[in-house]
Write a structure and sequence with these properties.
Layout lengths: L2 E5 L2 E3 L5 E8 L8 E6 L5 E7 L5 E3 L7 E6 L4 E6 L8 E7 L12 E5 L2
Parallel strand pairs: 2-10
Antiparallel strand pairs: 1-3, 3-8, 4-5, 4-9, 5-6, 7-8, 9-10
């Protein structure tokens, strides 16, 4: 059974940074694209960033230049470095395999709150 465990969230002031991690068990992520997503209060879950199996990455326009996604295939873990955080980044953050390889149910996510 594939499991995804997100961690690293917390309360941070605007302009601050956090580093999220997503530990994967039950499937090697080395051959798969992995994504980060978020769900803000009262909104639908949205795409944040993806790391492709070849190592390249893409980002939502709202986080481009501030967030960096990375992967450590040896640790079977995906990271999201978030800098210059804004209140509108407040959300529960989730990771998952992309597309048809998506794991269900999703993990519990990790709460990120940006507030002064």
């Amino acid at each position: 059974q594939v499991q995804l465990v997100e961690a690293g969230g917390g309360l941070v002031q605007p302009g601050g940074s956090l580093r999220l991690s997503c530990a994967v068990s039950g499937r090697s992520l080395s051959s798969y694209a992995m994504g980060w997503y978020r769900r803000a209060p009262g909104k639908e879950r949205e795409f944040v960033a993806v790391t492709w199996s070849g190592g390249s990455a893409d980002y939502a326009d709202s986080v481009k230049g501030r967030f960096t996604i990375s992967r450590d295939n040896a640790r079977n873990t995906v990271y999201l470095q978030m800098n210059s955080l804004k209140p509108e980044d407040t959300a529960i953050y989730y990771c998952n395999f992309r597309g048809v390889f998506e794991v269900r149910p999703w993990g519990q996510g990790t709460q990120v709150t940006v507030s002064s």
